[in-house]
Amino acid sequence: MDHTNVIQRKEKVSVIIPAFNEERRLPATLGKIHRYFENKDYSYEVLVVDDGSTDNTAERIEDYIKMHNSTRLIRNGINKGKGYSVKNGFLQANGDYLLFSDADLSTPIEEIDKFSGYLREGYDVAIGSRGLKESDIQVHQPWFREMMGKAFNILVRLLSLRGFKDTQCGFKCFTRKAALEICKRQRMERFSFDVEMLYIAKKLGYKVKEVPVRWVNEPETKVKAVRDSVNMFFDLLRIRLNDMTRKYE
């Protein structure tokens, strides 16, 4: 089956972008997303979730909205974390398919074409992956970040979630039903939310497809390598504890 370009005309895609201090990158990102979707038969919306930015992120989005009414701004008010921002965006989205993407578009928006066929075929979740042999890593992370990422993926498989090569790529698409059912149970508000969402998806019996994508490293990452890695390790333990105490039921 051809897994591209099969979203139907009557359907709608919502793109959720969590943003913290992204005044410099977001205008270009939104322009790329708009140019991609304006040539599609189906409708779309872009929800930028401002996670308590201290720069002019919100003002840049408001300026963009004046020209493109397909874009919406959601404000968290204070910094709550990437996981909270994605959840907030999902709960306010109107689409049949809900995609969250990093603000830097390390995975280009065009890669959603690789997801659509799997979602139409019966998968509930499609996730971008840098860890498959078919993945196209055009610009790599610094070696220490790649090594830390690989180590974290090993911990993920050992402590909470097996069967995935890469859980942390910021490009994941859900059917509306799956997204909302997962969000009801989601508790992680910061970087480990990816693992938790996939853990809940598998627990609920949803079909998840890991898809190789094109990826270009963006050096201005918001992740603090050592601090966030330690926190994410303990989050993996919390996910197991949450499951043991039936918080995902």
Radius of gyration: 17 Å
Order of helices and strands: EHEHEHEHEEHEHHEEH
CATH classification class: Alpha Beta
**What name is given to the CATH topology?**
Spore Coat Polysaccharide Biosynthesis Protein SpsA, Chain A
Q: Strand sequence of the main sheet, in spatial order?
A: 3-2-1-4-7-5-8
Largest sheet: 7 strands, mixed
Number of helices: 8
Overview in brief:
This protein is α/β, with parallel strands linked by helices. The protein has 8 helices and 9 strands.
Plain-language structure description:
There is one protein chain. The chain has helices spanning about 25-35, 55-65, 80-90, 115-120, 145-160, 175-185, 195-205, 225-245, and strands at about 10-20, 45-50, 70-75, 95-100, 125-130, 135-140, 170-175, 210, 215. It is of the alpha/beta class and about 250 residues long. It has a single domain, classed as Spore Coat Polysaccharide Biosynthesis Protein SpsA, Chain A, CATH 3.90.550.10. The strands form 2 sheets. The chain has a 7-stranded mixed sheet, with helices on both faces. The radius of gyration is 17 Å and the shape is globular. It starts with 11 loop residues before the first strand and ends in a 5-residue tail after the last helix. The relative contact order is 0.16.
